[in-house]
Amino acid sequence: MNKSNKKVMVGMSGGIDSSVTAYMLQKEGFIVEGVYLKLHNRTDGYHENNLGFIKDVAKFLNIKYHVLDLTDKFEEEVYDYFVDSYLEGTTPNPCVKCNRQIKFGAMLDFAKEHNASYLATGHYAKTDGKFIYAADDDTKDQSYFLSQVDKEALPYMMFPLSTYKKEDIIKLGAKLDVAYKKITEKNESQEICFVETVYTDVVKRHANIDIPGKVLDEKGNIVGEHKGYMHYTIGKRRGFTVHGAQEPHFVTKLNPKDNTIIVGKKQALEVNHVKVENLNMFIEQKEFDCTVKLRYRSVSIPCKVTIEDNKAKIALKEPAFGVAAGQLAVFYEDDKVLGSAWIKSSS
Ligand SMILES: Nc1ncnc2c1ncn2[C@@H]1O[C@H](COP(=O)(O)OP(=O)(O)OP(=O)(O)O)[C@@H](O)[C@H]1O
């Protein structure tokens, strides 16, 4: 590929991964420009701080950078969905939505408008323009979060860090320049960029989450009390009472309608069948065997998938424990992502 006249837009967050991404691509011969997305209105100097780092890196590389304000779109597509999910008693995955709608949606449109041939980010994942693959560094792999991006976006995506380990990127950053060194010394960015502490602090701004309710067993008997259903996610085992319980009890279901939660022993979390909807598939087959991850950081479970319209049934060949509606089921063939879909229910 002749890189000297190809422009790559790099999504720059002010963190070490995207800063090293920009450096690597420039070294490879691409014309690099950066773009910083303002995604939420945090008041603690968050954006100013990030932009300070980006300015220093851009100066070192002698590249242009842009600031794109997507706060309204982010609120609509990601933030509101996040809050609404907890109100509905499901467990959201805002990073997945953000990757589809914002980073590889609106940011990609911006890159194209600026005549970039590619959009690069510091995600740990791989792509060959047709599929997404897990990164070599298992502990950092982000393919799960990228599995909902539009197939049409794949040919434009670049992940230059895909074969590296995070610690190598940090070492490289520390050697490059004082600006990079300062970034390596920053705290790692939080898991969800707009959640400064815990998710309940965000939901609290929009709803009264502290309405106590009843804890039920699987037969519907009242067995204890809880603090308000939005405090819990599937599999949680603390923060509620179960009178006279000898063994740990886990949340198996949330009922927003009557503010009850259902709990059971470990076996009650066992799931063998999962129903999913809103598929985003990179393959055409409607029936196939593969492995599935039912949440980030969970093991891959062998399964059979049967797709009908925009829904699918997943028959697990080994049981999963604690499957939450609202999370994503991501289908893999070894390290290749075949597609993904949102979990509706499980049994
Ligand atoms: N606000 C933003 N503006 C532009 N690009 C962003 C922004 N936030 C994240 N990105 C891009 O998405 C990639 C993955 O985001 P993630 O939040 O997982 O960051 P990270 O792994 O901490 O990376 P970094 O060290 O670059 O912050 C980043 O490396 C960057 O390329």
Automatic annotation (TrEMBL):
Belongs to the MnmA/TRMU family. This is tRNA-specific 2-thiouridylase MnmA. Its EC number is 2.8.1.13. The active site is at C98, C193. Keywords: ATP-binding, Cytoplasm, Disulfide bond, Nucleotide-binding, RNA-binding, Transferase, tRNA processing, tRNA-binding. Its main location: cytoplasm. The record marks H123, Q327 as: Interaction with tRNA. CDD domains: MnmA_TRMU-like. It holds the Pfam family tRNA_Me_trans_M. Catalyzes the 2-thiolation of uridine at the wobble position (U34) of tRNA, leading to the formation of s(2)U34. Residues 275-343 form the tRNA-specific 2-thiouridylase MnmA-like C-terminal domain. InterPro entries: MnmA-like, MnmA-like_C, MnmA-like_central, MnmA-like_central_sf, Rossmann-like_a/b/a_fold. One of its GO terms (biological process) is tRNA wobble position uridine thiolation. GO terms for cellular component: cytoplasm. The lineage of its organism: Bacteria, Pseudomonadati, Campylobacterota, Epsilonproteobacteria, Campylobacterales. It is found in: Cytoplasm. Residues 140-142, 295-296 are annotated as: Interaction with tRNA. GO terms for molecular function: ATP binding; tRNA binding; tRNA-uridine 2-sulfurtransferase activity. Residues 201-265 form the tRNA-specific 2-thiouridylase MnmA-like central domain. It is an enzyme of class 2 (transferase). Transmembrane segments: none annotated. ATP binds at G11, M12, S13, G14, G15, I16, D17, S18, L37, G122. It comes from the Bacteria. It catalyses: S-sulfanyl-L-cysteinyl-[protein] + uridine(34) in tRNA + AH2 + ATP = 2-thiouridine(34) in tRNA + L-cysteinyl-[protein] + A + AMP + diphosphate + H(+). It comes from Halarcobacter mediterraneus. The gene is mnmA.
